[in-house]
Design a protein that fits this description.
With 120 residues, the protein is mainly alpha-helical. The protein is built from 5 helices and no strands. It has a domain of 35 residues. The radius of gyration is 34 Å and the shape is rod-shaped. Helix 1 packs antiparallel against helix 4.
Length: 120
């Protein structure tokens, strides 16, 4: 279900990008479509339609984003029984096997290799 909503959300976002790019500050839809918008919808009808379409796509985009977020967080809580973060779980599972000495120490005299006398 979430994958389907993500696909729809992607399509809506691409449509929203295209519709916003069609709105220009000076020429509007008419300059982008080489004057065909005037003949199809009238001079003000095209801009009103694009504005309403942008508003509708924006509302659907935000609504789908919130719905996908709500559904995704519900799935992650069911799969993970604890509410710990990923970093906390990794820190608890990655225990150190060997103790690391806090101070450096010199080897004892028994551990040293005796020097051989080279005066022969």
């Amino acid at each position: 279900m979430v994958q389907f909503l993500i696909t729809i959300h992607t399509i809506i976002s691409i449509l929203l990008i295209v519709v916003v790019l069609m709105q220009s500050g000076q020429g509007g839809l008419n300059s982008m479509m080489s004057g065909t918008a005037n003949s199809m919808l009238g001079s003000s009808g095209a801009n009103d339609f694009i504005t309403k379409l942008t508003t509708g796509l924006g509302i659907v985009f935000i609504g789908l984003a919130m719905l996908i977020g709500a559904l995704s967080s519900g799935d992650s809580e069911e799969s993970n029984s604890s509410s710990d973060s990923i970093m906390q779980r990794n820190a608890e599972s990655g225990q150190v096997d060997e103790m690391i000495p806090q101070e450096l120490s010199l080897p004892s005299p028994e551990e040293l290799i005796p020097e051989e006398d080279s005066s022969n």
